[in-house]
Design a protein that fits this description.
The protein has helices spanning about 1-10, 15-25, 30-40, 50-60, 75-95, 105, 120-140, 155-160, 165-170, 195-210, 220-230, 240; strands spanning about 170-175, 175-180, 180-185, 190. It is mainly alpha-helical. The strands form two sheets. It has a two-stranded antiparallel sheet. The N and C termini lie far apart (about 185 Å).
């Protein structure tokens, strides 16, 4: 009887013993949920999730690491950038001038004033050329060097026709010459390639009107004509070649 009471009576101990089993097996989803909550979401009691799914679930629960390059820069870096841009705009506005559609008018230098043509002073320029190139041989007073360079004062070779002194200055002179019983035999170089027509005219005019000489001035145009007429000459003149130009 006791056994009958215990197991045969549905209202007593037999029903009580079977009740937990009924609730536990009646809701599989609930059992799985409880199992997952107990193990932190990694238990797969029925083997429906692979190991990759379990690892993926664990990774998703971890804190995401920010991607490189998305970090925010320090505040002082932005301050430097802003200050640099501000200074650049200020500098361009201050020193680059005014923007205009007519730069050729606003930004070009004004035309220089017309320079008055200065008249060539043949004597003054001739003195400078003589001092620089001739004085070392013919001396400051034009007396020359005995036996080497003849004197220029009172020489008919200087105050005669202007072609002779001009051609001597242009191409030089070589060979013996005798003046007043004194023989001179030194080579004079030509200066046609180093002097301009104005300088040649000036120095010839200077020696023709210095050291007691008086003769007509020689103009640069005359020198240019003689320069062109003798452009092919490469050697110094001799006395015999120039004798036709001397008015004795």
């Amino acid at each position: 009887m006791a056994d009958e009471q215990d197991f045969g009576n549905p209202g007593q101990g037999g029903d009580q013993d079977r009740k937990p089993d009924r609730y536990q097996g009646s809701d599989p989803d609930r059992d799985t949920k409880n199992s997952a909550n107990d193990t932190g979401g990694f238990t797969d009691s029925e083997g429906e999730r692979s190991i990759e799914d379990l690892h993926r679930a664990a990774t998703e629960r971890e804190e995401q690491i920010p991607e490189e390059g998305n970090e925010r820069g320090p505040w002082w870096m932005y301050a430097i950038i802003i200050a640099t841009l501000a200074f650049g705009f200020f500098y361009m506005g201050r020193y680059l001038g005014e923007i205009s559609d007519r730069p050729h008018v606003l930004f070009t230098d004004p035309a220089p004033p017309d320079l008055e043509e200065v008249e060539l002073d043949l004597m003054a320029e001739g003195r400078r050329v003589y001092t620089r190139l001739c004085q070392s041989c013919h001396q400051q007073d034009g007396a020359g060097v005995p036996g080497a360079f003849p004197p220029l004062g009172g020489s008919d070779w200087v105050v005669g026709v202007p072609e002779w002194p001009v051609k001597i200055v242009l191409h030089g002179f070589q060979g013996e010459i005798v003046r007043e019983g004194v023989t001179y035999n030194a080579v004079m170089p030509g200066f046609g390639r180093s002097l301009s027509d104005e300088e040649v005219a000036s120095v010839v005019t200077y020696i023709r009107n210095s050291f007691g000489n008086e003769a007509m001035e020689v103009q640069p145009e005359e020198v240019a004509e003689m320069q062109e007429a003798t452009s092919g000459r490469t050697e110094q003149w001799t006395e015999s070649e120039l004798d036709g130009f001397i008015d004795r």
